[in-house]
Amino acid sequence: MASLLLRQRRVSALGVSRILQDNGDSFRLRLESKFETFASIGVMIRKYSSGKSAAKFDFTDLTCPHTWYPNARKKNRKVFLHVGPTNSGKTYHALKRLESSPSGIYCGPLRLLAWEVSKRLNKAKVPCDLITGQEKEEVDGAKHKAVTVEMADVTADYDCAIIDEIQMLGCKTRGFSFTRALLGIAADELHLCGDAAAVALIQELLKVTGDDVQVESYERLSPLVPLEVPLGSFSNIRTGDCIVTFSRKEIYQLKKRIESRGKHLCSVVYGSLPPETRTRQATMFNDTSSEFDVLVASDAIGMGLNLNISRVIFSTLKKFDGSEMRDLTVPEIKQIAGRAGRYGSKFPMGEVTCLDADDLPLLHSSLKSPSPILEQAGLFPSFDLIFMYSRLQPKRGLYQILEHFIENAKLSENYFIANCEEQLKVAAIIDELPLRLQDKYLFCISSPVDMNDEISSQGLTQFAENYAKKGLVHLREIFTPGTLQVPKTHSALKELESIHKVLELYVWLSFRLEDSFPDRELASSQKAICSLLIEEFLERLGWQKPTSRRLTSSATLNSLIANKRRHYLCD
C-alpha cells in the first residue's frame, strides 16, 4: 500500500546522493522571528562575537540556563506549584485563574490537551488561539493561547501562564522543552501543574531566578480502590472497563477476545493512532448511548483524554521501552491507574486490578508509594548555541557538531542533556545534502518523525532532498492523493498510520518554511482522510452485531472522502 502512495524513488541513510545545486538565500529559515521554537541567546552571541574571539568563550557551558531568558528575568514572577494525583482538580484551579486573567498562555505536553483548553476558553467567551506543531488557529481579539509546550513563546509578556504535567521536565527526550518553558516564560503568574515529585527540583532551579514559589497540594476528588483479586475470566469484563496493554498487537488481540463473547464492543486508544482518531474513539467510549462500552488502550490514556472509566485492568505490568523489557515505574502505574473514577462522571469511584494475580503485589505497592523525587531537568542546545559552536569547527557536519557538543557539554548537577538519538539519526542523513546549518537543524527537530519507522524516515529524507535540490517541495512529488483506502490488514493499518505521520511532517514543515512547502491545505485534507479510514478500520474490526449508532457510517465516510478527493484532484 505504502509503495503506491510514496513515490518509488527511495532514499536511505547510506544512499542519499549529494546534490550540488545550492538552494540560495531566498528560503532562509525564520526560526526565531516566526515560531520561537527555541530560546534566543542573541544578546550573548553579540557580546561574544564582536570584539572578542568566539574561541575565548565556551559555548558548551550550560551551567546557567536561566540567563538565556532575559525577558523572564526582568519579572518578579509568582510561581504556584499545583501538585497532586490524577483527578485531584489541580489543573482545573490553574485554568480558572488563566480564564480570569487579561492575557495568558497554556502549555501542555499534547496537542489533545491544547485543543481541550482552547475549546474551553473560547466556550467561556475568552478568545484563545490554538498553536501546535501542526496547526495554528487564531481567534480575533485573542490575548490567550493554548499551545504545545515546544511552541511556547518566551519573548512575549503574559499576565498568567500554565505549564501542565511539569514533572515531564525530567523526561529524557522532551524534558528540555519543559525546562525552557519553566525558565523562559515571562509571566506575572506562572502556574505549574503536576506530580509532587517535581517540587524540590523546581524550587532548586528557581532559587537563582528570584521568583516567589508557593506550593499548593491537592487530594484526589474521588476514591481509587485497588482490588484484592485479579479479573479472572474475561466473562467478568463489564461496561466502563479499560484494559491496558503495551503493544498494538496485544491491543487488537484483547479487543477480539472481548468482542468474541458478543457482550461488549471495544474502542481502542494507543500512541501511534492519529490524535483525531484517539479523540473519536474516546468519544464513542464515553457516550452512554454508544455500544462501545469497553476501552482497550496503551499508556496513551495516561494524559490528554477525558475518559469515563470505571475500572482499569492492567494486562501486564511490563513494557518494552525501546531498549529492554522492564517493569512499569511507580509514576507510570499511578498515572494510568488514576484514570479510573473520574469526578463528576457516571463512575465517580474508580477501581484498579490486573489480569494476572502475580502482578497485584507490584500494583498495590506502587499505588502506596510516592513517586521518586526528580533530581534533574533536561536541556538541549538551541540553534544559536550550535551555530556559534559550529564556527569553531567549520568543516564538520551537523552530526559531528551535535555529537561533539553533547560530549563536551558542561552542566550543573541539576540538569542533564536530553537524549538526542533521533536527532542524530536525522543529522546523519541530512549531512549528505547541501543544506545550510539552520536548515539541517530544522529537519533534525521535526517533531512528528520516528526514524525507526521506514515510511516516516523515507518521507523526511525525500522532503529534505527535494528542498535541497529546488527549495520547493510539492506534496504530489512523493505522495499520490486519491489512492488512500480503508486498510484490510494490521500491516496495512500500520502503514496508513505511518503515512499519516508523513503528512503531519509536511504540515509541520509548512508552518516553518511556508514558501517552500506550499501544499499545507492538501496535506491537511489527506491527513484527515487518513484518520477517517483508520476509524473505519477500527469500527469494522471484530464487529459482532449490526448497530445504527456507528460514529461514521460507510456511506457518510465514502461521501466525505469523495468530496475531498474531487476538491483536491480538480485543481
From TrEMBL:
UniProt KW keywords: ATP-binding, Helicase, Hydrolase, Mitochondrion, Mitochondrion nucleoid, Nucleotide-binding, Nucleus, Transit peptide
Stored Gene3D superfamilies: 1.20.272.40, 1.20.58.1080, P-loop containing nucleotide triphosphate hydrolases (3.40.50.300)
InterPro entries on file: DEXQc_SUV3, Helicase_C-like, P-loop_NTPase, RNA-DNA_Helicase, SUV3_C, Suv3_C_1, Suv3_DEXQc
GO molecular function: ATP binding; ATP hydrolysis activity; DNA helicase activity; RNA helicase activity
Pfam families assigned to the protein according to its UniProt record, in alphabetical order: DEXQc_Suv3, Helicase_C, SUV3_C, Suv3_C_1
PROSITE patterns: HELICASE_CTER
Reactions it catalyzes: ATP + H2O = ADP + phosphate + H(+)
EC number(s) on file: 3.6.4.13
Helicase C-terminal domain boundaries: 200-386
Record CDD domains: DEXQc_Suv3 (cd17913), SF2_C_suv3 (cd18805)
Co-factor(s): Mg(2+); Mn(2+)
Protein location: Mitochondrion matrix, Mitochondrion nucleoid; Nucleus
A GO biological process held by the record: positive regulation of gibberellic acid mediated signaling pathway
Gene Ontology CC entries for this record: mitochondrial degradosome; mitochondrial nucleoid; nucleus
Enzyme class per UniProt: hydrolase
Domain of life: Eukaryota
Family note: Belongs to the DExH box helicase family.
Record's subunit section: Homodimer; in free form. Component of the mitochondrial degradosome (mtEXO) complex which is a heteropentamer containing 2 copies of SUPV3L1 and 3 copies of PNPT1.
Record-given protein name: RNA helicase
